[in-house]
């Protein structure tokens, strides 16, 4: 099984659209796919799948202790199933460590070829930790300054979270906090100098942190492209991800803006299965193929 995580930094970039499109295309290729709506603040995958009133949701996993396997729902697309988000829950905005571990453990026990997580907006620890643990992380951006700035903020917080997790795993978090608090006394002015100092204190930290950094990678998708020249923004962001954040990134492609997509919601059946969404489907098929080729080159 492969766990995909789709994040976007800010809301409105179209990560739910991309998540849904990835799931549909994989299912059409014969993969058994489960879409999981982990956007606790505004779940909407059920709407994309054409399910008006989901009978189950993640709320039952957290509040009623039901196994994930018991709340999986079938959709009208063969091989594509759904775990709806917490539509009516009030207690999952901030999961504790034990809840997150339980969720990921149960995700890995699901019987599927691919599990796709539609993550929440922002830089909450839930989103960051899930993105770091995913086999196939996907970052969705839009061609506007605010969306790109928020995506860079997401990456910055992702790197800080990765550093914090490494320190916690080695029992060095409190010591590192003290060093950062008194960084002037240590001659530290930047995060880079801070990490260099930590390397001198603990060879084990240096080895572990390097290993975690090598594992961090992502696929960048540019959504809502209205003009041909905007497509170049995706490549520019991909380059910046590698240059400024030291993250191995691949550009998966772009998705054209569809001004009529909203009209497909609320009708019977999945929104992306309708005629007016043909271009969207083509874009998402191409992106899915690109991600698969980059992730599993030996299979191509």
If you had to describe this structure to a student in words, what would you say it looks like?
- This protein is an alpha/beta fold and 300 residues long.
- It has a single domain (2-299), classed as P-loop containing nucleotide triphosphate hydrolases (Rossmann fold).
- It has 11 helices and 8 strands.
- It has helices at 15-28, 45-48, 58-63, 97-109, 125-133, 145-169, 173-181, 191-201, 203-215, 232-245, 278-295, and strands at 2-7, 33-38, 73-74, 80-83, 114-119, 136-141, 217-225, 248-256.
- It has an 8-stranded mixed beta sheet with strand order 3-4-2-5-1-6-7-8, with helices on both faces.
- β7 (217-225), α10 (232-245) and β8 form a beta-alpha-beta unit.
- α6 (145-169) runs antiparallel to α9 and α8 packs across α9.
- The chain is globular, with a radius of gyration of 20 Å.
- The mean pLDDT is 88.
In short:
This protein is an alpha/beta fold and 300 residues long.
Distance between the termini: 18 Å
The SSE order reads: EHEHHEEHEHEHHHHEHEH
Which architecture name does CATH use? 3-Layer(aba) Sandwich
| Main sheet attributes: strand count, strand direction, barrel closure | 8 strands, mixed
- Adjacency order of strands in the biggest sheet: 3-4-2-5-1-6-7-8
Q: Helical region count? A: 11
Poorly predicted runs of 5 or more residues: none
Q: Structural class, from secondary structure content?
A: alpha/beta
Radius of gyration: 20 Å
Q: Write the CATH homologous superfamily.
A: P-loop containing nucleotide triphosphate hydrolases
Reading off the top of the CATH hierarchy, the class is best stated as: Alpha Beta
State the share of residues found in helices, binned by percent: 40-55%
The residue-averaged pLDDT reads: 88
- Find the CATH topology: Rossmann fold
Give the number of domains. Answer: 1
Shape: globular
Strand content: 15-25%
DSSP, total strands: 8
